Amino acid sequence: MDKWKRQLSDDRGDVPGWVLITLMTAGLVATIWALAGPALSDMFTTALESVTGG
């Protein structure tokens, strides 16, 4: 019974799995940022120019 309680109270989880998820998320963010970065920058610049009249 003590072993079962210890397993339930162990909050470390699957560390290699979380590391893999973190690395994959970072890779996806970097890829999307590389592809969409210039378009987002142009959109932001256009929006600022329309507000400021410049």
Structure description:
This protein is mostly helical and 54 residues long. The protein is built from two helices and no strands. It has helices spanning 2-9, 15-52. The longest helix is centred in the middle third of the chain and has 38 residues, at 15-52. The protein is elongated, with a radius of gyration of 22 Å. The chain starts with a helix and ends with a helix. 0% of the residues are buried. The model has no long low-confidence stretch (mean pLDDT 86).
Descriptive labels:
mainly alpha
Outline:
This protein has 54 residues and is mainly α.
Series of H and E elements:
HH
Q: Percent of residues in beta strands?
A: under 5%
Straight-line N-to-C gap: 72 Å
Described by strand count, sense and barrel closure, the largest sheet is: none
Strand-helix topology:
Layout: H1 2-9, H2 15-52
